[in-house]
Structure formats: C-alpha cells, structure tokens
Amino acid sequence: MNATGSAALSAVNRFGLGARPGELNDIGQPQDWLLSQIARGPDGDKLFEDLPTSLDYLRGQALFQQTRRKLTDEARSRRDTLKKDAESNAAALQQALKPYREEERNKLLAEAAARCQVATTTDTPFVERLVRFWSNHFAVSVDKVSVRPLAAPMEREAIRPHVTGRFADMLLAVETHPAMLLYLDNVRSTGPNSPLGRRIAQRLARKGAQDKGKAGGLNENLGRETMELHTVGVNAGYTQADVTELARALTGWSIPFPRDFANGGQPDSAFAFRAKTHEPGDRRVMGRTFQADGFGQGRAILAFLARQPATARHLSLQLARHFVSDNPPASLVKRMAQSYLEHDTSLAAVYRTLIESPEAWEADARKFRTPQDFVTASLRAAQIDLGGKPQIVLGLLRKLGEPLFEPRSPAGFSDNSANWMDPDALWKRVQAAEALSTRVAARGGEEPLAWAQSVLGPLLDEDTAQAIQRAESKRQAHATLFASPTFQWRA
Predict the structure, then answer these.
(1) Residue 3: pLDDT over 50
(2) DSSP-derived 3-state class of residue 249
C-alpha cells in the first residue's frame, strides 16, 4: 500500500500520537515502521534520567512530615508560653513549610514537562501510546495527596521498562509500586492473624471490642482491583472469597514509612514487605491453592492471574478497543489473546498480532481522540516547544476533562469515543485549539496549507483546506486545523 495513503495515516494516527510535519513521507512500509518501534522499545531515557525516583520522593515526604511535626511542636510551645492565637501560629507554620511545597510543585512540573517533551519529539510514537495505554489501565490518581508525587514515577519505573516485555513482569512491578500501594490503601493492610494483627486484637479485646475479625485492618481494595481491572476482568467467574484470599496474600506489601528514614535510616527500595503484618497460611484463589510463602505467596498468585485465559481476553479486548474501535472484531481479540498465551504473556507478541491483522487497518477502524490524545497530536503537529513549562497543557487537560494522572476511579479514563463528543466538550476543544495556536513558533516561510497537508495528507478535506487558506494569520490557520473535525479522529 502507498506509504502516503491510508496505511501510513493509520500508522501515525491510529497507532501513533499524530503526525509530525513530514513524518508521513518518512514511514516507508507502515507495518515495518510500527514493528521496528516494538523492537526498539520506549524512548525518553535521557529526558527522565535526572528526575527523582519513587524512593527519593518517599524520602522527601518523610523529611516534610518530620519538619512539619517539629514546627508544629515549636508553635504549640510558643502558644503555651506567649498565649498567641491559633490563627497566627497556623499562618507561621504554613509560611515555614512553603519552600517544601514549592520544591514539590517544581518537581511535579518537571515530571509533566519531560512527559510532554517525549510525546512531542519521540521517534517511537506507537510505543509511547502503549505507555499511556498501560498507565491508564493501571490507573492511580493524584487527587489522593500521598500519591501526588508518585504517579509519574510509576509510569517511568513500572510501565516503561516492561511495555514491550511480559505482562506478568509489568503486573508485579505495578502492584509493588508505592503509587499503587498507597492509592489502593494496601500499605497498612494487616492480616488479622498476623503477629501485629493478633496484638491489635488483644488490645481491642481488653477494651471490650467484640469484632476481632477486623481487628487486623485487612483492606481488600488492591486485591479487588487487581482481579476486576488489572487481570482477569469482572466477568471471569471469580468470587468475593477469591478477592478476600488475594487481599490476605497481599498483606504486608507496603512502603518505607517516615520512621524508617528517621535517625539516619536509609531504605534501599520504595517497596517494603512487612512480615509482621502478613496473614499466615495457605490461600486458595480461583480453584488453586498457594502455600504460605510470605511475599512469594502474593507474587505467585499474580503470576497465576497473569497467565489466565480470562486475562488474555480481557487485555486483548482493551487493547483492540483502544487501537481499532469501541467494538473491535471478535476475531481480532481472539488472535491477540492466543498470542498472549502462546508467548507466556509477551506483550510484544500481542502487539505484533495486532499490527499484522487486517481488521486493524480497515477504513472504519477509528477512534475519537481523547483530550490527552488531542493535545498531544497538536503538540506534535506544530512541534510546539513548551520550554519546560507544561502549565498550559495541564490547564487544558483539566478543562477538557482528562487531567493528568487524575481519573475519577481506579478504572481510569474512559476509552469510549462517545464519552468525549458532547457539544460542551467539542466547544472546549475549539477554545483549546485557539490556546495551543498561541504557542506555535513561526514556521519560517512555510505556508499553512502546505503544513496542514504534511500533517494530514489525504485526510485534509476541502472544507478544512479552504478554511486554512482563508485564515487571517498563521496562528488562526493552526487553530483551524487543531479544531477541525478531521483532526479529532485517529483514523
């Protein structure tokens, strides 16, 4: 198929992040272009190398808490001595903590800036789209304060390294990452019969508490979402008992606490297994028994879930729905699931099956761009340089309804086109197009129409072309393209 035709367009839009100027002419054979990206793996190591690790962030949080506690104690002492009012002491405390909050804000902006720059400049846009797909599949939200500095590192540390590897490895990396453990409240999940759980039960019993079964503080959130969203899916036939058993196996999966950093403590990992809170005994999940083995028990269950046919179907459906259509062909999903199982959860094998399937290249296989897709495609099309200041992108994503790392639930942002196409959302895209056009640098002597043709190729329809030609300025021409109906679809 002609590389400047529909296949090349599908490669850069449906599978990639949107075309950069001239990229359509450089693709060659579209399938080979995509397959070569799988072989190369993710981009952006240099942009991310100076960013803090999750352990760095946890250490910073510990220092912040220690400082706040010290300042609070000092303020209380002054209040007792000088009888100052609580309001003035609170203001002084906030002022003293301001440098710590500003430092955190600057780090989060640096995370967002690096992510935007990779998306704008990467030569492996298919892999970059896959990173974003899996990041949404394993959704965490920064609306939970403790997760705020850890969501971006989870994408960097748990998803990028495994995006073309095995799902079983990615699953373990995600479920042991502090962002997920904090988001789904597993860091203090305690087995009722663990050493700590028994001590808690005894203490409550002395106080007259009757419900000793909950005394240990078992939390089922991580177990439930691991099964319902991350692996086998809601229709896989598992029971509430399976969820509870998995939750018991995951007790003790935690992170270093602030006290672990106190007095010169130097944890060497952002994950911590706390044997004293782990529920003892064998666990039975989906018909299989897993012997007591501390951390190894939960790891074995995750490996088992990763290799289930239900997981293969669930993941393949999600991938096909993301890349092909809201209702992808059953034949395509079945082949992808077979590849997943035959190659021991190899994601690269699943991607190759997707790319080599004719259903993925049909003319009616298209998706409406989500807000993040739309903004990213605009950045790439005009090669907008944010100069390390991503605030405009962060503001637009919030206005458009898909704020960075802030889904409404562990299910992530919707991948259904209909959820992004209501009149109010479309009007906000027009406003976003105008805002983005103000960031487009002068493109030398290049005419706007030639630029539009280099980005959209044969997709550039007559109405859009005429509107661009009639634009009173290059800025207006860019806004016209960004807001055009054609640009809103990954066709």
Answers:
(1) no
(2) helix
Task: Report DSSP state, residue 346.
Answer: B
Mean pLDDT of 381-389: 92
Does residue 411 carry a pLDDT above 80? yes
